[in-house]
Amino acid sequence: MLKNSRFLGLVVFVFLFAMCNQKSKNESDKETILKGTLDITVDETVKPIVEDQVAVFEGTYYDAKISITPKSEAEVINDLLNKKAKVVVTTRNLTKEEISRFEKSKIVPRVTPFAKDAIALISNKSNNDTLIALKTVIDFIQGKSDTGIKGLVFDNPNSSTVRYMKELAKVKDLPEQGVFSFKTNDEVIKFVSENDGMIGVVGVNWLSQPSPNMVDIVKKINVLSVKGLNDTKYYSPTQNDLAEVKYPLARDLFIINCQGYTGLGMGFGSFIAGDIGQRIVLKSGLLPVRTPGRQLQIRKEILKDNE
């Protein structure tokens, strides 16, 4: 009997020891703002800038691993609302109706704007005219004839660029004729580079930071300067024209965090909105929300190297 009691006690001790070790292991593996794993669903039109941010973030915080899943805007928002994604990057803020859905689950979305982006209109290099009036594009979307546009090319029927242009033209649907769509911005750029008379609609980040296999293809297209509805001059999707609020097809970028706790999503959101993240935005060709500061060291004397 005593022998059995000792054996039972030994089993209980081993079990408790294992549980304590497992508890310690779980606590050490707990997600924090700078540690853990995270999947971010990203609007495909702004994938390059998010890839840059993730690369630097992971290179700075080695215990953080972030994976990127690019999707159309409609899919990104749906995944967020259906709790398939907890952290997303979009080109628009949440609507009041969307926010109320999270409030019912007692989750307050953390929405952080971090950059000003632009929708670029591109044409084949053989087209010598690099100017286009926004009204011409809107007339085409509204189904009017004699616009001079052979066709508009989008990345995806459910993309943010399609939604943006439909809202601008105040139409529910795009014309059935003369509108083409693919799956990615790279496919749009390639198609326009091979077809004269087509106008491509892409996120400007795909042009300012092309992938290695797209560098030569980007050289075969023109980025068009656009005249706004109430403008007399044409402006380009450059940092300067974005900063001066002159380019008519500008939009904001947001990271939306619905984790509901202090996790890696909060840390990454703070990073891209902070000094380093804003410098990455500046380098990418987009416009940061905050201009990164510069530290100047002023010397009273000029120091000479020792001979």
TrEMBL record:
Keywords: Signal
Annotated ranges, domain PBP: 35-274
InterPro entries from the UniProt entry: PBP_domain (IPR024370), Phosphate_ABC_transporter (IPR050811)
Cited Pfam families: PBP_like_2
PANTHER family xref list: PERIPLASMIC PHOSPHATE BINDING COMPONENT OF PHOSPHATE ABC TRANSPORTER, PHOSPHATE-BINDING PROTEIN PSTS
Name of the featured protein: Phosphate ABC transporter substrate-binding protein, PhoT family
Species: Flavobacterium defluvii
